[in-house]
Amino acid sequence: MVLVPVTGSSVSSTLQRNTKEYGKKFLFDGCPDTCWNSDQGESQHVGVRFAQHSSVKRIKIQFQGGFAAKACQIKVGGEVQDTIYPVDSNTVQEFSVNVSGTEMQLVFSGFTDFYGRLIVYLLEFHDT
Asked: What does the pLDDT look like over 47-73, one tens digit per residue?
């Protein structure tokens, strides 16, 4: 699997606006001890930008158990291209998808946390 590098990102929120400890940069740092932690809300999303138009065939994501999403729409240009259905688990989950573009947005729903918070330790995009 070839990793598609993320050159820019945005998130819907960060827990108590504490980007030093829970910011979006921790989604892509490769360190298993750091994470993005969203604040509470009905909707959470992660936007990513790639250096060039990229085909994404696999997405890897790791939540903290109890702070996961049950569904994730993958949008390109505001249109839903695919939907994945994670489980409430601490393990790295891998999903086959078929989306392409220079920017994508992952829109999470169906939170396992009562307040709608997410904790994500890993988010990767692969082209094979």
From this structure: 999 999 999 999 999 999 999 999 999
Could you give the C-alpha distances from 73 to 30, 46, 81, 108, in angstroms and in order? Answer: 23, 11, 8, 7
For residue 23 the two structure tokens come to: 């910011």
Partners of 71 in the beta sheet? 109
**Alpha-carbon dihedral angle through residues 102, 94, 23, 26, given to the nearest 10 degrees:** -100
In contact, 46 and 11? CB cutoff 8 Å = yes
Confidence (pTM): 0.94
* Contact present, 73 and 80 (Cβ < 8 Å): yes
> Pseudo-torsion of CA 24, 27, 30, 113, nearest 10°?
130
Buried b (16+ CB within 10 A) or exposed e, 55-74: ebbbbebbbbeebbbeebbb
For residue 99, give the 3-state DSSP assignment: strand
Residue of 85, 87, 97 lying closest to 125 (CA atoms): 97
Please enumerate in sequence order all residues whose Cβ is within 8 A of that of 33, keeping only pairs 6 or more positions apart, or say none. none
